[in-house]
């Protein structure tokens, strides 16, 4: 179930935790009528992908999944030749800014279409990632998402209040699920 930070349910909708299905949370947030819309979306480990990071940030939300095996997460960099100091080993991937630039206008069109509820985020994901193989637009959105995934991982590793806030929200959701099972 989707909850806000005050333990109130959003749209009385249960959202799956798989990467493909997790984009329903974007649709729930976009279709919400009345009340304050969430600024950040906090999910469990199973509901993230680089494309999800990209789409969520394109529509102006912060995406904060709880990531398992944080030390094993891959970080991404813009410049393979740059010295990232102690992060050199972790920052193995390269963000292809050329792909992002080549598809930027289409990425903006997708974001506006989702924001205006002309198309669901779930349907967009199916269109840009067929059978797990992203289209060129999907690859561009994934590279864009890697920027925010890397920033999120670095904050999780270095910012204790940020980490605690995410964990507190995850615990709140788990507590509500536990209560529902008991009832």
Walkthrough of the structure:
The protein is mainly alpha-helical and 183 residues long. It has one domain. The protein is 49% helix and 7% strand. The protein has 6 helices and 6 strands. The strands form 3 sheets. The protein has a two-stranded parallel ribbon. A two-stranded parallel ribbon has the order 3-4. β5 and β6 form a beta hairpin. α2 packs across α5. It is globular and about 55 Å long. The two termini are 15 Å apart.
Helix content: 40-55%
Low-confidence stretches: 1-8, 10-17
Distance, first to last CA: 15 Å
Number of strands: 6
Q: Mind sketching the topology for me?
A:
Blueprint: H1 24-31, E1 40-41, H2 50-58, E2 62-63, E3 76-77, E4 93-94, H3 97-115, H4 121-128, E5 129-130, E6 133-134, H5 136-158, H6 160-182
Parallel strand pairs: 1-2, 3-4
Antiparallel strand pairs: 5-6
Helix pairs in contact: 2-5, 3-5
What can be said about this structure in brief?
The chain is mainly α. It has helices at 24-31, 50-58, 97-115, 121-128, 136-158, 160-182; strands at residues 40-41, 62-63, 76-77, 93-94, 129-130, 133-134. The strands form three sheets. A two-stranded parallel sheet has the order 1-2. Strands 3-4 form a two-stranded parallel sheet.
């Amino acid at each position: 179930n989707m909850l806000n930070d005050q333990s109130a349910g959003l749209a009385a909708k249960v959202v799956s935790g798989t990467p493909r299905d997790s984009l329903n949370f974007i649709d729930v947030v976009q279709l919400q009528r009345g009340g304050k819309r969430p600024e950040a979306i906090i999910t469990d480990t199973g509901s993230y992908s680089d494309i999800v990071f990209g789409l969520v940030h394109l529509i102006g939300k912060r995406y904060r999944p709880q990531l398992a095996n944080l030390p094993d997460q891959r970080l991404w960099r813009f410049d393979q030749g740059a010295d990232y100091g102690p992060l050199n080993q972790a920052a193995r991937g390269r963000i292809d800014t050329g792909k992002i630039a080549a598809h930027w206008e289409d990425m903006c069109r997708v974001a506006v279409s989702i924001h205006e509820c002309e198309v669901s985020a779930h349907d967009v994901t199916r269109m840009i990632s067929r059978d797990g193989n992203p289209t060129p637009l999907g690859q561009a959105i994934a590279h864009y998402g890697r920027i925010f995934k890397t920033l999120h991982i670095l904050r999780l590793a270095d910012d204790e209040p940020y980490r605690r806030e995410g964990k507190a929200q995850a615990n709140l959701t788990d507590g509500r699920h536990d209560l529902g099972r008991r009832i």
